[in-house]
Amino acid sequence: MKNKATKGKEMVQFTIGMLPVSENNAIASSRRGGYKTKQYKEWEEFVLLTVKEKCIKCSEWYECEVVFYFPLYFKNGKVRKKDAHNMIKYAIDTVLNNKVIDSKGERIDDSRILGGGWTSVDSEEERVEITFYTVGECS
């Protein structure tokens, strides 16, 4: 998704062969509070086992672009109801917390993501691409 806004920025990209868990299916409630669902744990485990850690240049801030690939229509032509924006948080958090380090060797907290965007693409092969871009320099 490289365009004029991302030109000249350092980036790291991840392609994950599974869609992330949605907000509706990530956390379940109990008397003691919330806990990760089986679906969420499966997503995290898949990312941990299949995605290699990458290093990005140290920056004070970052941007993130997410592209979801999945069938947008059923075979009969009706639109599928897949709420991609409900998957963004879990896609970014899982990858950022486990697979991205900056050039100083430190993990990047999601509070340092200034913005970005997301897109859904019609595809038979379900997957998600997550790209992080640097914004500025390290302080």
Give the neighbour order of strands across the main sheet: 1-8-5-7
Helix and strand sequence: EHEEHEEHEEE
Annotated CATH topology: 60s Ribosomal Protein L30, Chain: A
Distance between the termini: 27 Å
Largest sheet descriptor: 4 strands, mixed
What is the top-level CATH class?
Alpha Beta
Short description:
The protein is an alpha/beta fold and 139 residues long. It is built from three helices and eight strands, in the order βαββαββαβββ.
Features:
single chain; 60s Ribosomal Protein L30, Chain: A; four-stranded mixed β-sheet; two-stranded antiparallel ribbon; 3 helices
What does the model show?
The chain is an alpha/beta fold and 139 residues long. It has a single domain, classed as Holliday junction resolvase RusA (60s Ribosomal Protein L30, Chain: A, 2-Layer Sandwich). The chain contains three helices and eight strands; from the N terminus they run E-H-E-E-H-E-E-H-E-E-E. The chain has helices at residues 23-26, 38-50, 88-99; strands at 11-16, 27-30, 33-36, 54-56, 61-70, 100-102, 113-122, 127-135. It has a four-stranded mixed β-sheet with strand order 1-8-5-7, with helices on one face. Helix 2 (38-50) crosses helix 3 (88-99). It starts with 10 loop residues before the first strand and ends with a strand. The model has no long low-confidence stretch (mean pLDDT 90).
Outline the fold blueprint.
Elements: E1 11-16, H1 23-26, E2 27-30, E3 33-36, H2 38-50, E4 54-56, E5 61-70, H3 88-99, E6 100-102, E7 113-122, E8 127-135
Parallel strand pairs: 4-6, 5-7
Antiparallel strand pairs: 1-8, 2-3, 5-8
Helix pairs in contact: 2-3
